[in-house]
């Protein structure tokens, strides 16, 4: 069983880090004020506001900011400001044993996907494919906040992951499987293949989502994931949205799912609200879930935080 981090409560301290691309200081400050208004205290990593082109700071420095938050006894949760590009470059500089000994929750999506899965894979820590600092704004849908706090601030178990009412989950291949859930942004995960941080899908339920990639690029990603055995190893597959993904050669994202994934015969659910979409379900990476594509349900079977 994976390690559950301590639950989050109002009045707790959040540690902000920028592990990938930089974010405008005005946006950071506005989102920090929202968190303070919600009752949280904030501590800042040294390079939260840094800017060095594509990334906020050199990889070692961004990694040290993350490690400092795990070591800081004041910090209950580590919250990346954004994803962007470059998160993968910090992975070799993290101390996964120190992280294992100081379990804390961390949340994010997009390029943060590789950090979430690596912390589960190498530190056995449940992490959260959910909100980042940029999402803490007044116009964020209530659904997103409800999902985030249900996952991070309650001991609810079992917890059904449900889409908003106007966005139904759909199942394309019937089945019923249970196992740890892994995955996230397709681009980020494909970039780990052939590295020491390659995602492990064996005996796990794999979920994927993508943004701003034309379908000919999605075709390449699915090819790479298939040829590296990731679909063959997994128990079942959940496909989230492909937001702002242009159609190439008359082939849609849905066409690719039918062509590539339906023939595998594994339980297959689609249309999960997560990642880059307007609505964002909270997916606990490393937690045991039940994927039932007969009843069309996705259920987290255990508490994802500890009291």
Automatic annotation (TrEMBL):
Pfam families: Peptidase_S66, Peptidase_S66C. It comes from the Bacteria. Residues 178-291 form the LD-carboxypeptidase C-terminal domain. Residues 15-129 form the LD-carboxypeptidase N-terminal domain. Gene3D superfamilies: Class I glutamine amidotransferase-like, LD-carboxypeptidase A C-terminal domain-like. Keywords: Carboxypeptidase, Hydrolase, Protease, Serine protease. The keyword Protease applies. PANTHER family: MURAMOYLTETRAPEPTIDE CARBOXYPEPTIDASE (PTHR30237), MUREIN TETRAPEPTIDE CARBOXYPEPTIDASE (PTHR30237:SF2). Belongs to the peptidase S66 family. This is LD-carboxypeptidase. It comes from Bacillus songklensis. The lineage of its organism: Bacteria, Bacillati, Bacillota, Bacilli, Bacillales.
């Amino acid at each position: 069983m994976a390690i559950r981090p301590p639950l989050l409560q109002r009045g707790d301290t959040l540690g902000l880090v920028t592990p990938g691309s930089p974010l405008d200081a005005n946006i950071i400050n506005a989102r920090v004020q929202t968190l303070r208004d919600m009752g949280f205290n904030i501590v800042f990593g040294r390079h939260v506001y840094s800017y060095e082109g594509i990334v906020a700071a050199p990889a070692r420095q961004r990694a040290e900011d993350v490690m400092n938050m795990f070591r800081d006894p004041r910090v209950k949760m580590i919250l990346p400001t954004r994803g962007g590009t470059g998160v993968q470059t910090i992975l070799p500089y993290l101390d996964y044993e120190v992280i294992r000994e100081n379990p804390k929750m961390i949340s994010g999506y997009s390029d943060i996907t590789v950090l979430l899965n690596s912390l589960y894979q190498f530190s056995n820590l449940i992490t959260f494919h959910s909100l980042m600092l940029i999402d803490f704004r007044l116009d964020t849908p209530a659904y997103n906040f409800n999902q985030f706090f249900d996952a991070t601030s309650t001991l609810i178990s079992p917890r059904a992951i449900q889409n908003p009412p106007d966005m139904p989950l759909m199942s394309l291949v019937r089945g019923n499987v249970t196992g740890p859930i892994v995955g996230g942004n397709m681009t980020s995960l494909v970039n780990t293949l052939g590295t020491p941080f390659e995602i492990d899908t064996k005996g796990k339920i794999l979920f994927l989502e993508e943004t701003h990639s034309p379908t000919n690029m999605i075709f390449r990603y699915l090819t790479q994931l298939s040829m590296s055995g990731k679909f063959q190893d997994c128990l079942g597959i959940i496909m989230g949205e492909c937001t702002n993904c242009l159609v190439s050669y008359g082939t849609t994202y849905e066409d690719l799912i039918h062509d590539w994934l339906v023939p595998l015969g594994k339980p297959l659910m689609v249309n999960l609200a997560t990642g880059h979409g307007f609505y964002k379900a909270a997916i606990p990476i490393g937690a045991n879930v039940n994927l039932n594509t007969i009843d069309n349900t996705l259920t987290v079977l255990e508490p994802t935080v500890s009291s």
